[in-house]
């Protein structure tokens, strides 16, 4: 599959680029084409260091999303929304958009603050990109752990969206060793997943931890 | 400590009664005194079966909270709010109130729906019981697992509240083998924990699991 990471320079976009590049055609997008190309080359070098040879591409956002099957908006909320607006007209209707976006503010502690009108970042992005399927995922996946290629992860990923695109994204998550996807419901349920991000940052700060995440502990039904 | 479980018949109240009874003075409260006394006797019998001898008391709510150090409102949201109102005048100011309460509605999937005015059940209960410290906890602790005394648990509990009462509750959580408390911030952060309850029920239903819970996976800071 061709996967474009918008915001693949630093943070979760870089981590996903590194983890997917061995199995997929990965493109890094940025408002600045040169920065995106540099990020792609830097990812290749990091993978090469681990003995993995693969090619990543980089380009300006509108260029980077061309012919993609999946576009991940790996940007902070305040950049994610204008970026969704900016790519709207170029995006083909069959492209799945993945949102790990979380609206947060700091006020003594970190709060989850979705826009009242939408209730979650995922629904807000879906309202902008109304011709595409938005799937929300990766809210509890620490970027630093994805980027560290020696990290075996062993983490769970909660995924919200419509059934068919959600299944595609869950398969892509399985392509990353150490990540297990869990169906967390329709996109309307995304607010209950998104709010775990600031919660985990608060938990990290208060319990002398870093890169906190969650695992789902359940008993299987026979 | 003297701990009163309001709603100790079935659900998480019964589980906490069973787990705390060997170390604390546990009282089960109900609107119906007889039902509470029966629940206390039933807990004693279950513990006795595991070779643990201890005495639990039961009584009508107003009676059950007398001389307690900690009162847990182990009731569904729609019963928890009127119960908080009902006990307000009897409750001594130094009593810590623990809320595992989560406002939820079913609409295809389970949604977290706190009252707009308060933003979480914990803050709503704090508004009612304004002379007491409310601490929120146990939102991700499956009742069925607490009740099964052979279950070794190995679960994390996110705790929100003011520092001093929160520390007391975190110590009480440590008194239950297999539960690890994590400081998740002030009571104002409780909405981000409460919303995990319906999320986990949705995840259970969609992934052929039951009694889902979470563990916090973090890297410790040296």
Can you describe this structure?
In chain A, helix 4 runs parallel beside helix 5. Chain A has a single domain (about 1-205), classed as Rossmann fold, CATH 3.40.50.720. The mean pLDDT of chain A is about 95. With about 220 residues, chain A is α/β, with parallel strands linked by helices. The first copy, chain A, is globular, with a radius of gyration of 17 Å. Chain A is built from nine helices and eleven strands. In chain A, strands 3-2-1-4-5-8 form a six-stranded parallel sheet, sandwiched between helices. Chain A has helices at about 10-20, 35-50, 60-65, 75-85, 120-130, 145, 165-175, 190-195, 195-205, and strands spanning about 1-5, 25-30, 55-60, 70-75, 95-100, 105, 110, 135, 155-160, 180-185, 210-220. The interface of A and B includes residues 193, 204 and 210 of A. Strand 11 (about 210-220) of chain A pairs antiparallel with strand 11 (about 210-220) of chain B, so a sheet runs across the interface.
Q: What's the quick description here?
A:
The structure is a homodimer of 222-residue chains. By secondary structure, chain A is an alpha/beta fold.
